[in-house]
Design brief:
By secondary structure, the protein is mostly beta strands. It has 2 domains: 81 residues, Winged helix-like DNA-binding domain superfamily/Winged helix DNA-binding domain (Arc Repressor Mutant, subunit A, Orthogonal Bundle), CATH 1.10.10.10; 213 residues, Galactose-binding domain-like (Jelly Rolls), CATH 2.60.120.260. 13% of the residues lie in helices and 41% in strands. It has 5 helices and 19 strands. The strands form 2 sheets. The chain has a 16-stranded mixed beta sheet that branches. A hairpin with a 3-residue loop joins β8 and β9. The N terminus is likely disordered. InterPro entries: ArsR-like_HTH, HTH_ArsR_DNA-bd_dom, WH-like_DNA-bd_sf, WH_DNA-bd_sf. Pfam families: HTH_20. GO terms for molecular function: DNA-binding transcription factor activity.
Length: 340
């Protein structure tokens, strides 16, 4: 069992700079062929091995010493984790010959019960963008930002949206305006991309909250207007699943929306909202190492209702903006006819 793709994370450093980190993610369907993975985790000692390897790589002997287990027993546990694709082992020179060094093969695994990924055999690259990683913005008050443990800056002061130290922000809201994100393309094989999918949690913005407050939220990629989704409201009737306990300012959660661009046009949760195709986007990316994503709530829209954008640790979905580049699969060569 192998990880289905390398996922590229775009993360802020504490100095406000953007760092890119490549990680391996395994996507599993809740089906019989995933049993080796689940069985590998159904053991306390193997979970302890993973805990140790999260800190540093370790040899069989070192794992045995920390777990108070024999090398033979540790070897069997490591083999189960290797077969599940969770751990990898390499042979390296040691003081007394070669030694087997174990390390994590995955950063993350996700179990899929039902989704819109389509064919599970499709390969893709994933880019994760924190909501604080926008490059440009133009914001109108009322507005504000919050981190996991406090309000960032001052509420209703748009100047804080330009602060270089906003890396901790995991919720932002504004009455009108836009934020524009650079999506890094360095690890994306643009020649093979056939579909682009962007998911995020968002809703309207109303003082306190108002579940019936509509807002037209628009999206653009590479300078092309994709279309408009009308948010049905600003939701605060219950606590968001991941919203911190200290937050008491109204909005608690949003809706998880999936924007898709393919050869047939642009879609929001499967409903067509525009005619821009993936080829239209790709034609603008020749020689580029980034793709711009603009999210707007225009003051002159039919429903000018602002927006809330949720990142990790806020709302109902513990995620940042997730971008998936799906690839065309290479054509398999035709089998040669068997010789007589």
């Amino acid at each position: 069992m192998k990880p289905r793709q390398a996922a590229v994370s775009c993360l802020h450093g504490k100095d406000g700079t953007v760092n890119h980190e490549t990680k391996e993610i395994l996507y599993l369907r809740a089906e019989e062929d995933a049993l080796p993975f689940f069985q590998a985790l159904a053991n306390k000692n193997r979970l302890e091995i993973l805990r140790i390897l999260r800190q540093k790589d370790a040899s069989i002997k070192e794992l045995g010493e920390q777990l108070d287990l024999s090398s033979a027993v540790v070897t069997k546990h490591v083999q189960a984790l290797e077969e599940a694709g969770i751990v990898r082992s390499t042979t390296r020179p040691g003081k007394r010959g070669l030694k087997k060094l174990c390390s994590l093969a995955l950063n993350e695994a996700q179990v899929i019960f039902d989704n819109n990924y389509g064919n599970s055999a499709r390969s893709f690259t994933e880019v994760e963008i924190p909501i604080s990683a926008y490059e440009t913005c133009d914001i109108t008050a009322p507005c504000g930002m919050a981190g996991e443990d406090r309000i960032f800056g001052s509420i209703d002061d748009p100047r804080y949206f330009g602060a270089a130290n906003r890396y901790s922000v995991t919720l932002l809201w504004f009455t009108s305006g836009y934020v524009e994100y650079p999506i890094p393309l360095m690890d994306v094989d643009l020649e093979r991309v056939e579909e682009l999918e962007i998911s995020m949690e968002l809703c309207s913005e109303h003082p306190g909250f108002n579940s019936s407050w509509k807002s037209d939220i628009s999206f653009a990629l590479a300078g092309l207007d994709l279309g408009i989704w009308t948010s049905p409201g600003d939701f605060g009737d219950r606590k968001g699943r991941f919203t911190p306990a200290w937050w008491t300012l109204g909005t608690e959660y949003g809706l998880l929306k999936t924007l898709t661009v393919n050869s047939e046009g642009t879609f929001m949760d499967g409903i067509r909202i525009g005619s821009v195709t993936i080829d239209d986007i790709l034609q603008r990316l020749t020689g580029q190492d980034r793709l711009s994503l603009r999210i707007s709530a225009d003051a002159d829209a039919m429903h000018p209702g602002g927006l809330n954008l949720f990142g990790r640790h806020f709302g109902d979905y513990d995620q940042n903006i997730r971008v998936l580049f799906y690839y065309q699969e290479p054509e398999k060569p035709e089998a040669s006819p068997a010789a007589d």
